[in-house]
Protein backbone atom coordinates (compact mmCIF):
# COMPACT_ATOMS: atom_id res chain seq x y z
CA UNK A 1 0.00 0.00 0.00
CA UNK A 2 1.10 3.51 -0.75
CA UNK A 3 0.02 6.14 1.74
CA UNK A 4 -0.88 9.75 0.99
CA UNK A 5 -1.33 11.38 4.40
CA UNK A 6 -2.30 15.04 4.47
CA UNK A 7 -3.03 17.30 7.41
CA UNK A 8 -5.22 20.39 7.61
CA UNK A 9 -4.23 22.64 10.53
CA UNK A 10 -1.97 19.87 11.81
CA UNK A 11 1.57 18.74 11.10
CA UNK A 12 1.80 15.07 10.16
CA UNK A 13 4.58 13.86 12.44
CA UNK A 14 6.52 10.64 11.83
CA UNK A 15 4.80 9.14 14.89
CA UNK A 16 1.31 9.84 13.48
CA UNK A 17 2.38 8.57 10.04
CA UNK A 18 3.76 5.30 11.49
CA UNK A 19 0.67 4.80 13.68
CA UNK A 20 -1.68 5.21 10.68
CA UNK A 21 0.40 2.92 8.46
CA UNK A 22 0.63 0.24 11.16
CA UNK A 23 -3.12 0.29 11.82
CA UNK A 24 -4.27 0.38 8.17
CA UNK A 25 -1.86 -2.36 7.08
CA UNK A 26 -3.72 -4.73 9.43
CA UNK A 27 -6.51 -4.76 6.82
CA UNK A 28 -4.28 -6.84 4.53
CA UNK A 29 -5.10 -9.96 6.56
CA UNK A 30 -8.58 -9.96 4.97
CA UNK A 31 -7.20 -10.19 1.43
CA UNK A 32 -5.16 -12.71 -0.52
CA UNK A 33 -1.68 -11.24 -0.66
CA UNK A 34 -0.64 -7.62 -0.39
CA UNK A 35 -3.02 -4.83 -1.28
CA UNK A 36 -1.84 -2.58 -4.09
CA UNK A 37 -3.78 0.61 -3.45
CA UNK A 38 -3.20 4.28 -2.82
CA UNK A 39 -4.51 4.94 0.69
CA UNK A 40 -5.75 8.53 1.03
CA UNK A 41 -5.71 9.85 4.61
CA UNK A 42 -6.89 13.33 5.58
CA UNK A 43 -6.33 14.65 9.08
CA UNK A 44 -8.16 17.80 10.16
CA UNK A 45 -7.92 19.60 13.47
CA UNK A 46 -10.64 21.93 14.72
CA UNK A 47 -10.82 23.87 18.00
CA UNK A 48 -11.80 20.93 20.19
CA UNK A 49 -12.04 18.07 17.72
CA UNK A 50 -10.05 16.12 15.17
CA UNK A 51 -11.42 14.48 12.06
CA UNK A 52 -9.82 11.58 10.19
CA UNK A 53 -10.91 10.41 6.73
CA UNK A 54 -9.51 7.29 5.03
CA UNK A 55 -10.26 6.14 1.48
CA UNK A 56 -8.86 2.91 0.03
CA UNK A 57 -9.87 2.26 -3.61
CA UNK A 58 -9.60 -1.43 -4.47
CA UNK A 59 -10.54 -3.31 -7.65
CA UNK A 60 -13.76 -4.79 -6.29
CA UNK A 61 -14.77 -2.16 -3.72
CA UNK A 62 -13.91 1.17 -2.21
CA UNK A 63 -13.35 1.32 1.52
CA UNK A 64 -14.12 4.74 2.97
CA UNK A 65 -14.74 5.95 6.48
CA UNK A 66 -14.45 9.07 8.56
CA UNK A 67 -14.43 9.65 12.29
CA UNK A 68 -14.39 12.64 14.64
CA UNK A 69 -12.94 12.46 18.13
CA UNK A 70 -11.14 14.65 20.65
CA UNK A 71 -8.02 12.45 20.42
CA UNK A 72 -6.56 11.84 16.95
CA UNK A 73 -5.13 8.43 17.87
CA UNK A 74 -8.53 7.30 19.17
CA UNK A 75 -10.15 8.53 15.93
CA UNK A 76 -7.64 6.47 13.91
CA UNK A 77 -8.43 3.36 15.99
CA UNK A 78 -12.17 3.87 15.49
CA UNK A 79 -11.86 4.44 11.76
CA UNK A 80 -9.79 1.28 11.26
CA UNK A 81 -12.49 -0.65 13.15
CA UNK A 82 -15.09 0.78 10.73
CA UNK A 83 -12.99 -0.25 7.73
CA UNK A 84 -12.59 -3.78 9.14
CA UNK A 85 -16.36 -4.07 9.53
CA UNK A 86 -16.84 -2.94 5.92
CA UNK A 87 -14.37 -5.54 4.63
CA UNK A 88 -15.92 -8.36 6.70
CA UNK A 89 -19.43 -7.40 5.59
CA UNK A 90 -18.38 -7.28 1.95
CA UNK A 91 -16.49 -10.60 2.11
CA UNK A 92 -19.43 -12.31 3.81
CA UNK A 93 -21.98 -11.06 1.27
CA UNK A 94 -19.85 -11.82 -1.79
CA UNK A 95 -18.78 -15.27 -0.64
CA UNK A 96 -22.32 -16.23 0.32
CA UNK A 97 -23.66 -15.73 -3.19
CA UNK A 98 -21.88 -17.53 -6.05
CA UNK A 99 -20.42 -15.22 -8.66
CA UNK A 100 -22.12 -15.26 -12.02
CA UNK A 101 -20.05 -16.45 -14.95
CA UNK A 102 -20.81 -13.44 -17.14
CA UNK A 103 -19.50 -11.04 -14.52
CA UNK A 104 -16.27 -12.98 -14.11
CA UNK A 105 -15.63 -12.88 -17.89
CA UNK A 106 -15.81 -9.10 -18.04
CA UNK A 107 -12.82 -6.82 -17.65
CA UNK A 108 -11.95 -5.94 -14.07
CA UNK A 109 -12.97 -2.33 -13.58
CA UNK A 110 -12.97 0.05 -10.66
CA UNK A 111 -16.11 0.33 -8.58
CA UNK A 112 -18.03 3.47 -9.30
CA UNK A 113 -17.87 5.91 -6.46
CA UNK A 114 -20.44 8.65 -6.44
CA UNK A 115 -19.77 11.23 -3.80
CA UNK A 116 -22.70 13.47 -3.02
CA UNK A 117 -21.75 17.04 -3.70
CA UNK A 118 -23.26 20.07 -2.07
CA UNK A 119 -23.72 22.48 -4.95
CA UNK A 120 -24.55 26.12 -4.50
CA UNK A 121 -27.63 27.16 -6.45
CA UNK A 122 -27.53 30.64 -7.86
CA UNK A 123 -30.78 32.44 -8.55
CA UNK A 124 -29.90 32.97 -12.21
CA UNK A 125 -28.48 29.57 -13.28
CA UNK A 126 -27.12 26.23 -12.13
CA UNK A 127 -23.36 25.89 -12.00
CA UNK A 128 -21.61 22.53 -12.44
CA UNK A 129 -18.72 22.49 -9.95
CA UNK A 130 -17.42 18.95 -10.49
CA UNK A 131 -17.43 16.23 -13.13
CA UNK A 132 -16.35 12.63 -12.52
CA UNK A 133 -15.86 9.67 -14.85
CA UNK A 134 -16.07 6.05 -13.74
CA UNK A 135 -15.91 2.55 -15.16
CA UNK A 136 -18.98 0.52 -14.20
CA UNK A 137 -18.30 -2.90 -12.74
CA UNK A 138 -20.77 -5.66 -13.65
CA UNK A 139 -22.52 -6.80 -10.46
CA UNK A 140 -25.87 -7.96 -9.23
CA UNK A 141 -28.38 -5.72 -7.47
CA UNK A 142 -27.56 -7.06 -4.01
CA UNK A 143 -23.87 -6.24 -4.42
CA UNK A 144 -24.74 -2.74 -5.69
CA UNK A 145 -26.91 -2.10 -2.62
CA UNK A 146 -24.09 -3.34 -0.40
CA UNK A 147 -21.61 -0.98 -2.12
CA UNK A 148 -24.01 1.96 -1.81
CA UNK A 149 -24.53 1.31 1.90
CA UNK A 150 -20.82 0.81 2.60
CA UNK A 151 -20.01 4.11 0.92
CA UNK A 152 -22.87 5.90 2.67
CA UNK A 153 -24.22 7.28 -0.60
CA UNK A 154 -27.80 8.06 -1.54
CA UNK A 155 -27.66 6.20 -4.86
CA UNK A 156 -25.36 3.91 -6.85
CA UNK A 157 -24.94 3.43 -10.62
CA UNK A 158 -23.82 -0.01 -11.84
CA UNK A 159 -23.94 -2.42 -14.76
CA UNK A 160 -26.29 -5.33 -14.10
CA UNK A 161 -24.27 -8.55 -14.49
CA UNK A 162 -26.88 -10.63 -16.35
CA UNK A 163 -28.25 -8.09 -18.82
CA UNK A 164 -25.20 -5.75 -18.94
CA UNK A 165 -27.58 -2.79 -18.75
CA UNK A 166 -26.94 0.31 -16.66
CA UNK A 167 -29.10 0.59 -13.54
CA UNK A 168 -29.38 3.02 -10.65
CA UNK A 169 -30.29 1.80 -7.18
CA UNK A 170 -31.44 4.10 -4.38
CA UNK A 171 -33.06 3.85 -0.97
CA UNK A 172 -36.60 5.14 -0.63
CA UNK A 173 -37.92 7.10 2.34
CA UNK A 174 -39.69 3.97 3.62
CA UNK A 175 -36.31 2.18 3.86
CA UNK A 176 -36.88 -0.12 0.87
CA UNK A 177 -34.75 -0.03 -2.27
CA UNK A 178 -35.74 0.95 -5.78
CA UNK A 179 -34.03 0.48 -9.13
CA UNK A 180 -34.10 2.77 -12.14
CA UNK A 181 -33.44 0.92 -15.39
CA UNK A 182 -31.91 2.94 -18.22
CA UNK A 183 -33.33 2.28 -21.71
User: Quick one: CATH superfamily of the largest domain?
Assistant: Ribosome hibernation promotion factor-like
Our estimate of the beta-strand percent is: 25-35%
DSSP helix count? 4
Main sheet: strand order: 1-2-3-4
CATH architecture of the largest domain: 2-Layer Sandwich
Share of helix, binned? 25-40%
CATH topology of the largest domain: Double Stranded RNA Binding Domain
In the CATH scheme, the class of the largest domain would be: Alpha Beta
Summed over residues and divided by their number, the pLDDT gives a mean of 79
Distance between the termini: 40 Å
CA radius of gyration is 18 Å
The domain count comes to 2
The SSE string, one letter per element, is: EHEEEHHEHEEE
* Category by helix and strand content: alpha/beta
DSSP E strands, number: 8
Give the low-confidence spans: 100-122
Shape: globular
Largest sheet: 4 strands, mixed
Condensed summary:
The protein is of the alpha/beta class. It has helices at residues 14-24, 72-96, 101-105, 141-151; strands at residues 2-8, 38-45, 50-57, 62-69, 138-139, 155-160, 166-171, 177-181.
Amino acid sequence: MKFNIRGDNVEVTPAIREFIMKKVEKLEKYFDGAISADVQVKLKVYDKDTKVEITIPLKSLVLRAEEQHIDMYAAIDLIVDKLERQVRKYKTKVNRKPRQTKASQKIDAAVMLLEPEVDTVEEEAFQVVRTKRFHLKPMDTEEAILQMNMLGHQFFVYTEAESLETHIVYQRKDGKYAIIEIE
